[in-house]
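Good day; I would like, with your permission, to put a structural problem before you. I would ask you to consider whether the tokens describe a fold that such a sequence might reasonably adopt. The full record is reproduced below for your convenience:
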Amino acid sequence: NRMGQAEAGMGIAIGDVDGDGLFDVFVTHLVEETHTLWKQGQRGLFKDRTVASGLTSPHWRGTGFGTVLADFDHDGALDAAVVNGRVSEPRTGLESMGDADFWQVYQERNQLFKNNGQGEFRDVSTANPAFSRDAGVYRGLLCGDLDNDGSLDLIVTAVAGPTRVYRNTVGSRGHWIGLRLVDPGLHRDAYGAEVAVEAAGRRWTRYINPGYSYLCSNDPRAHIGLGSVATIDRISVLWPDGSREEFPGGQADRYLTLRKGEGQQR
């Protein structure tokens, strides 16, 4: 990290947290450490910007495993979610546990952080008790629109506990667009592609890769919150083979499938 210390590194998420068009990386670590936000400045150069992002002062700490960067309220900024669960016994407090369940000493609560659009986060875990109140030994965190209503839901796996499904019930959400990128020649989703949506003078970028978090495969579709923007100007795709295409925009609040070869080459 910025202090030159090696850290554990369990979960990983990728996304453009500050809207500069470059992908940043968020990595979870042990409870004794601090989850790290690596911001990309010059392309290919990442710097530890955890302190500046506000992620060093959460309401509580935990050993993070699964993590996602996703826009849960469609305001146009990627928020962060982390599921926690210890891997070692705490150094103090065991005497008061008595004959508690074996796994109880490893239980920790999950966390949710809201992004202000500039890559600065604040802890909103206490405002989301369904996700953050009950401690557990959590590991996997999967993200996707389970009911195709346009909002991102979560699935959490746990050691010695049930898998939990969390439906997104944010009351006041902005507009959104969902994009599936397909390569007909390969008969598969175009993993490794980059897609950018332009509207109202802004540009949102996503990386097509379901293999993030911790031991999880997530929704392969790109999901982009648009805030108050209801109409998209254009959609640009950088395909994995390096070719570029542009697709027309149109109305927001829907899912589109973009097929390689059907756009306008750039």
